[in-house]
Amino acid sequence: MATAERINTTATMVAHMAPSRSTTPDQLARLIDVHLGDLREEQPNWMLAPSPVAGRGVFATRNIAAGELIFRERALVVGPTARKGSQLNTCVCCHRLLASKHFLCPHRCTLPVCAECADSTAHRNECEHFQRWLPKDLTAAEEAPSKEQSKGEAEGEAPKEPLGDVVNPLSLRILTAVRVFYLSKEQRALVDAMQANAERGYRQEIIKAAQCFRKFPTTDKPFMDQLFRVVGVLNTNAFEAPCRVDKHETLLRGLFPLTAIMNHECTPNASHYFENGRLAVVRAARDIPKGGEITTTYTKILWSNLTRGIFLKMTKYFVCNCDRCNDNSENGTYLSALFCREQGCKGLVIPVQTKTLQPDWRCLSCENVFPHAKMARYQDFALNTINNRINTCSVRDMIHFINELCPRFCPPSNYVLIEAKLNVIWRMTRLGAEEYTPEELAHKDRYREEILAILHKLGAGECTLKKLITEEIQ
Ligand SMILES: C[S@@+](CC[C@H](N)C(=O)[O-])C[C@H]1O[C@@H](n2cnc3c(N)ncnc32)[C@H](O)[C@@H]1O
């Protein structure tokens, strides 16, 4: 993050974030060029232009071959995702894992930070900023022991272990938005030129964060409006980028503006991945002709039509109209398929209509039609049963479950079962091959071939998942 001029009042912050919704395509292109800096190619194979899909998009300036690099981009801003279950005792600057107790900033901004970063210029602005908002100190309990604790100790009980530091994920998550206010003027202009979906849930994120502080400027309307927009931009555009420091893996909330301007396609022609949470790399997954829109995916590629549709509607607020979404066989992969509920028939049942999230379902064998509610309950059952096993079973038991029990209630093409196979492959790779029997390793190879065949049917080309499966998972 650029260390911009110091900002001491919310009024100054708002002035710096003055809206510039009318950013022209040329201005946007210039802001992106400045942001790319030394990573901007002399003659890029991409350009920005209005998209027939939505808003602005990224387009090929010449034919691009599958596998070719399209661009690399550093994050404009990153921060903790502070997801449920993540290790919150991770330094917000260098992302190292900290001690499990006493890991908050010594300057009492209540952010988890390592001793080195606590006094760094990278942390100074946000530290002072959080201090000004007066965090409700969650460690107070440690300094002022409860009445019962003091009583117990007075009566000769061994002193209780100090409670240690506690982080509120809601205040931690707002950090990325706060960091946006400290970007340079041009960087903030770029943030302001980005799409921000207006969603009530995003406001909740701020309202809940505000409750973590005694002096959050909730009555400062211009500031709050800017904050709502920044959080809207983050939620519309930011990625969750994995980052590994030493052996500690964490997910960062990163804004990569050029990568974000790419529109979504369910089987995209480009793939992106992140290097240590701070660098996005975008490559062509298939050949892209000159003038073609370069697309990425906002969903998992192996999800069924309905699952992707619901996810996009709920989190990105649009209905996808790509070729894959309009084909109820899903390129012959039948990722949505469930077994027929009719006595004696074990045919495959698939959604009939494609442009609705509540389709009728029809059996490909007996042609009976089932209401969506019934099939949705069945899909939920399969999902919960399989995910429950994934979370509780050893790999060995999972292989047995997939091969012997799943076929009784879930067609082998169903995406939940495919994802379970991917999970097995992934876990076996992480644990190392020597722990498994040749038979178990053969199952892993078979799962891998099945998934590669599905990716081939989908026309996914050199997508990130294929790269992972063929190169890293061996
Ligand atoms: C990260 S932005 C993509 C860039 C955006 N087109 C722009 O002009 O800044 C994501 C938003 O773009 C729109 N979008 C992206 N892909 C789409 C698609 N396939 N169909 C409809 N809308 C899409 C949706 O409004 C979505 O919330």
TrEMBL record:
Residues 44-299 form the SET domain. The keyword S-adenosyl-L-methionine applies. One of its GO terms (biological process) is methylation. One of its GO terms (molecular function) is S-adenosylmethionine-dependent methyltransferase activity. This is SET domain-containing protein. Residues 144-162 have a biased composition (Basic and acidic residues). SUPFAM superfamilies: SET domain. Keywords: Methyltransferase, S-adenosyl-L-methionine, Transferase.
